[in-house]
């Protein structure tokens, strides 16, 4: 486990997150990549932040969980950058995604957020 993953996301929740991202890619709005996700967190436009666990060097994303906690934005971890990119239809991988508008996956995203807040 890498140092910035304090609370690993359970497998069942990871699968629901990937499903929600796939559903939301048609009608939702995302920010992808560390710089864009950081901006979305700072503006509080992010509803949910997802961070890959295999980012190297770790310093690239290790500020995201801290920033999310400061702003009260729920966040979760997905095992690989490739999984994260593929879930929203990217050919390349991405280190992080901020969901600003879940579109058709609103109900699922709200359920995921409730689950994450209970941990």
Overview of the molecule:
By secondary structure, the chain is α+β, with helices and mostly antiparallel strands. 46% of the residues lie in helices and 16% in strands. It has helices at 11-27, 34-42, 63-71, 81-87, 106-118; strands at 29-32, 48-52, 75-78, 96-101. The mean pLDDT is 93.
Could you give the topology of this structure?
Elements: H1 11-27, E1 29-32, H2 34-42, E2 48-52, H3 63-71, E3 75-78, H4 81-87, E4 96-101, H5 106-118
Parallel strand pairs: 2-3
Antiparallel strand pairs: 1-4, 2-4
Helix pairs in contact: 1-4, 1-5, 2-3
Features:
single chain; 4-stranded mixed beta sheet; 16% strand; alpha+beta; 60s Ribosomal Protein L30, Chain: A; 5 helices; 119 residues
């Amino acid at each position: 486990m890498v140092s910035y993953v304090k609370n690993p996301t359970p497998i069942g929740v990871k699968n629901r997150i990937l499903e929600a991202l796939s559903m939301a890619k048609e009608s939702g709005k995302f920010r992808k990549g560390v710089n864009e996700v950081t901006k979305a967190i700072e503006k509080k436009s992010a509803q949910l932040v997802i961070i890959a666990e295999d980012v190297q060097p770790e310093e690239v994303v290790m500020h995201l969980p801290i920033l999310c906690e400061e702003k009260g934005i729920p966040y979760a971890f997905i095992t690989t950058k490739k999984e994260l990119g593929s879930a929203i239809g990217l050919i390349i991988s991405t280190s992080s995604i901020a969901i600003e508008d879940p579109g058709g996956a609103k109900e699922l995203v709200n359920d995921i957020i409730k689950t994450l807040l209970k941990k």
